[in-house]
Amino acid sequence: MVSRVIPVEPFDLVIFGGTGDLARRKILPGLYRRFLSGQMPPEARIIGAARTDQDDAAFRNFVGAAIKEFVPKNRCDPKAIDRFLAQISYITVDVRGDKGWNTLAKMIRSDVVQAFYFSVGPGLFGDIATRLNDYKIATPLSRIVVEKPFGRDLTSAKELNAVLAASFEEQQIYRIDHYLGKETVQNLMAVRFANVLFEPLWNAQYIDHVQITVAETVGVGGRGGYYDKSGAMRDMVQNHLMQLLCLTAMEPPAQFEPDAMRDEKLKVIRALDPVDASDIVRGQYGGDPSYLDDCENPASLTESYIALKVDISNWRWKGTPFYLRTGKRLKGRMSEIVVHFKETPHSIFDDDAGRHANILSIRLQPDEGIDLRVTIKEPGPGGMRLVDVPLDMTFADALGPEAKDVPDAYERLIMDVIRGNQTLFMRGDEVEAAWAWTDPIIERWQARRDKPKTYEAGSSGPEDALMLLHKDHRRWREIKA
Ligand SMILES: NC(=O)c1ccc[n+]([C@@H]2O[C@H](COP(=O)([O-])OP(=O)(O)OC[C@H]3O[C@@H](n4cnc5c(N)ncnc54)[C@H](OP(=O)(O)O)[C@@H]3O)[C@@H](O)[C@H]2O)c1
Q1: CATH topology of domain 180-407+427-470
Q2: How many separate helices (H) and strands (E) can be counted in the chain?
Q3: Two domains, one topology: 11-147 and 180-407+427-470
Q4: Which one from 178, 240, 340, 356 is the annotated catalytic residue?
Q5: Which numbered atom of ligand 1 lies nearest the CA of 26?
Q6: Helices (DSSP H) in 271-308: which residue ranges?
Q7: Annotated catalytic residue 240
């Protein structure tokens, strides 16, 4: 299979926070990979911007080192890296002051696409948006890319939306959620909407429940101070898990087109029921160091783990719960959406055959892919014994080795920005609706001073989370080490 590379127009991409961690690990190596794929025209320019005083050569050294660290060795061709670096420059800018802005204004071309990536702390988003406008850098061709977190509650998200809206139209604002850039997430759309097999079954009549898991093995480590003000609900559920839930639950949009998709996702969020306190389990990892050690706050009430049962009140989903869970320092690293179909209404086989149900799992990581468990007869003589086997749709196996080289979510999303395609980005009203659902849950914990349960580091989370499903006669999928 030969992949098709769609070239993009020339562009100026300014990365505010170009010297930061996200730029180093994701954005710059991702751009290099797109360059290698022939998607960066020679006239395109990438400009790093931050307060650090350095020249182009020093920044190019930084970018070259980032590529060598984060791009597989077999793709690090020194000549290609040099050609890529020749398209990169640096400017010293203080986004809170005046330094650098006039120079930046002279550098940016007004007749090509201009993209401004806000890879800085969220406290600076408003400063950048305002100055891009005040210094007359922004044009109708400009796009801004805003990183997470997008607010910490409904009020702050509304304020941030208002600040951005003062300088940019909604169709110029790209709120990034890198989960949406993952190949498998888009494949979920293909599986659902390009096959006739699944859609008739995709409802409460045939689906028993859905499990969405994002499990991490790492703790909050060096970012404990930041994380302690946030917690798993704000950091993961309000954005990433919510987006995965929306894509699983939404109605088919009329077209695969930004506003049609986002309208359908918004309807799902608005149909979410408030969650009962008894349907939520919060946890903090123990061990050495424990969560409390990592966040250096022995009295912290912030959760590093959360599991919750979410009901959607609409015709399609009434009666089919979505169980979400995410946590740090767990047994394994995995992200998946798992659709558990109902058992057949009646079994024609004897009791020894057992009861079976189809399971569709969509793995986001580690090895991206989709598999469908179907029940067949166990081969051999000795009666009718049934066994569940996977119909594996792992991309690399089905599509050849090239499919293994899936672009990282960031590189795809950055190219979507340049192409002006907002399908995989969140709209302002979507983010606000997600906070409107999240806020009362968090406020209730705060009012009660709810204390998270301690769980063992390296485990599957708190015992109570198992009970959340047991009481509904269901079980979580195993988190594999
Ligand atoms: N790192 C990740 O994996 C990750 C993942 C998801 C989302 N994010 C989000 O991405 C954003 C950036 O995160 P990060 O981890 O890259 O942060 P970081 O490593 O702390 O980098 C921050 C960047 O902002 C620059 N900066 C700070 N103040 C500035 C100012 N007044 N004017 C101009 N530049 C300034 C810094 O450079 P100077 O000190 O040289 O100015 C640095 O380049 C944050 O919103 C974060 O929440 C990060």
Answers
A1: Dihydrodipicolinate Reductase; domain 2 (3.30.360)
A2: 17, 15
A3: no
A4: 240
A5: 3
A6: 291-294
A7: yes
Assess whether pLDDT exceeds 80 at residue 5. Answer: no
The number of the ligand 1 atom at minimal distance from the alpha carbon of 94 is 32
Q: Where do the domains of the chain lie?
A: 11-147, 180-407+427-470
CB of 94 shorter than 6 A to ligand 1: yes
H helix or E strand, kind and range, residue 367: none
Distance (Å, whole) CA 466 – CA 281:
9
Residue with tokens 């759309």, as numbered in its chain: 189
**Ligand 1: does its nearest atom lie under 6 Å from the Cβ of 464?**
no
End-to-end CA distance of the chain, in Å? Answer: 33
Predicted TM-score (pTM) of this structure? 0.94
User: Does the beta carbon of 128 sit less than 6 angstroms from any atom of ligand 1?
Assistant: no
| Residue 96 Cβ < 6 Å to ligand 1 | yes
Q: Find, among 322, 379, 323, 377, the residue nearest to 353 by Cα.
A: 377
CA torsion, points 354, 362, 21, 163, in degrees to nearest 10? -120
For residues 152 and 302, the answer to whether their CB atoms sit within 8 Å is no
Look at residue 1 and tell me whether its pLDDT is greater than 70.
Answer: no
> Is any atom of ligand 1 closer than 6 Å to the C-beta of 51?
yes
- What are 20's two structure tokens? 């930061």
pLDDT tens-place string over residues 322-366: 999 999 999 999 999 999 999 999 988 888 777 889 999 999 988
Q: Which of 15, 22, 47 has the most ligand 1 atoms within 8 A of CB, as the residue to mutate?
A: 22
Taking CA atoms only, the protein residue closest to ligand 1 atom 5 is: 22
CATH topology of domain 11-147: Rossmann fold (3.40.50)
